[in-house]
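can u pls check wat happens w/ zinc ion
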Amino acid sequence: MRKSIERIAGESEGASYEFPLFRLAGTDKAAPSAYLQAALHAGELPGVVAIDLLMPMLIKAEAEDRVKGDITIVPWANPIGRAQYHFGEHQGRFHLGSRANFNRGFPLLASPDPALLPNTTLGSADQRLKTRLLQLSLGHDIVLDLHCDDEGLAYLYVHTSLWPAMADCAAALGVGAVVLWSEDTDGTFEGASVMPYQNAPADVAKLDRRVVTTVEYRGILDVDGTLARADADGLYRLLVARGTVVDPDLPAPGPFTGVVAPLENIDMMPSPRAGAVLYNVKPGDRVARGDRLATIIHAPGETDGHTEVFAPQDGIILTRRSRRIIRAGEDLLKLVGGRKSADARSGTLED
Ligand SMILES: [Zn+2]
């Protein structure tokens, strides 16, 4: 495993950013290559601690000549967000200098050709970071972007063109749900990693063996040694299942038994009032249409000071907020149902 340091120029003299990059050289050029990054939203750390435990497994595999495909790892993909504190609170989701979400605005290339990447020399630092991350990942058969939600099940976003071919990956990672999406106009990292292949010739696109996903490793507070161990084992299982790493002792993943639903089946449940949220459900709960999901206390102690929110359809609770203060119109949770949601939001994954 070789370590190098990537440098991203800042926006003023004397300011720049660094992140480490690790590469393992595979011994079989025909084997699938893999790119893993974590903490693009810089405070989302379950993937960071999973990679911490995965890397020794890969180093061992390399020493035993079992790494077949090239592997590139960026354990902490966002040094700009990592350094952002605002009044003492970490802010890793949006670039404070431009208000841009760190997982939006990636270049959506017409084909997987690095020559099409924009010149961001005169752009903002976050644009330079995004261009570099995409450049590093382009050409890999397996691209994993490790995130987490507020509070949630482990789940994947997957483009419809890669499903059900990626069911083995969902099983290997042990996630509870897969959300399928079909178009990305906002330039998520996942979108920028899969859209260039949609119009490519079949021998370049290789959609039957391509793996691109945003992995949502549960909630922001689920940074935990036991979960990290399970997640590292899951990532390793995926790499073995796809032939990037060889491990004859590891059984193939079984069938995926979790929930699979299109993005349009997710009810986001905007809060009707501002106030304190009392949740009646937690991630993983199954609900029936009409079940109470949450109570918003907007006028404590007053008659009519509570507003209840009910499930619009049968389904499973995928996520909920980690904070309990909410504004009117902010989403309370994600409910995955069996049919299109009343407030279905088109397009991009909601990471
Ligand atoms: Zn994220």
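The longest strand covers residues 16-24.
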